[in-house]
Design goal:
- By secondary structure, the chain is an alpha/beta fold.
- About 40% of the residues lie in helices and about 15% in strands.
- The chain is globular, with a radius of gyration of 21 Å.
- The site of pyridoxal-5'-phosphate has 13 residues, from α5.
Amino acid sequence: MTSPVSKRAQAIKASETLAITARAKELAREGVDVVAFAAGEPDFDTPEYISRAGHEAIDAGKTRYTPASGTPDLKAAIAKKLKEDNNLDYGLKEIIVSCGAKHALANIVTVLVGEGDEVLLPAPYWVSYPQMVALAGGVTRVLPTTSEAGFKVTPAQVADACTDRTKMFILNSPSNPTGAVYTPEELAALGKVLIEKGVWCLADEIYEKLIYGGAVHESIAHVVPDLEPRTVVVNGHSKAYAMTGWRIGYAAGPAEVIAAASNIQSHTTSNPTSISQAAAVAALSDGKDVVEHMRAEFERRRDRIVEGLRAIPGVEVPVMPEGAFYVFPDVSRLYGKGGFAEAKGSFDFAKVCLEEKHVAVVPGKAFGEDRCVRMSYATSMEKIEEGLARIAALAGA
Ligand SMILES: Cc1ncc(COP(=O)(O)O)c(C=O)c1O
């Protein structure tokens, strides 16, 4: 019997990382002391002033549908944030609030990418982008980057990859999984190529608040004003405000694109949760101290985990992550050696870490780089020390 599943749905792969994370959770449920470096979310609770605003929204009866693209209050707060933090001017018709940045990205990809359109995606990349493009009927063209280039794509690579079908370039800075942050100069050079080639830029800035060691985040839409009419900036509350479960993200871009995204959203999810939207307004009204507290703590952990990994023979951290909360070590020199004798790639490596030492890491192959694994330092310093010791023991150090 032929499959009832549509061709488009069949093209969507299950998350390659799911098996590892599911197994890590199963072990933890069995009472095993798992060190989890797999998490993609802050280990902090949502700050109290935000949660309180959520409670108050319920008590005040803010429990009904809102406009599909978000409440005017939240859109105004986002417009203010984009102006103050990013030097960007967007009106309320140029902003849509969605159920997380992931949903915002999926909406925008659906709006802009047509059947057979090509999307340029620097690798290593966040796992969901190619699947969103496939779901829209587009084709992802992966642009590999090297550690020598700081895991950043060059303007020449982008220019060479452009064809008459190229519609969009996806820029994720700070990057998941590498932590790479593009400098304003690099953004300017990339933007110049995108203008020349007439390509749209989807700028995923979800990790903008989590940057370290003096790195600066600037939005490409500000650095390259001529590109702004063909840029959509995506951001959200999950990472900066430890609000992953509240599901609030947003996109800002040309009114025509935002209106089309709102139409799609109105027929699929309708509005993001009314209660979360009220809490999200509160989040943006305050919180510089709590965000800075989390950022500083992540920086301390980044410094320690990178130092600890670099001390393990066979493990390299060629690029110091400058943002997000991930480190992307090259562990390929351990494949076939010591405790990793059977390992041929990053999946095997992750499996050995989990089964032998109960350390959960995410295989780099899922992000397009089989020599590396992704380790999240959104976990306590004690867990980081314990995890480093267990990996060192496996490596025979
Ligand atoms: C690069 C990147 N973009 C977007 C998201 C989506 O975040 P959310 O949907 O929770 O706002 C994530 C989450 O892991 C991410 O890593």
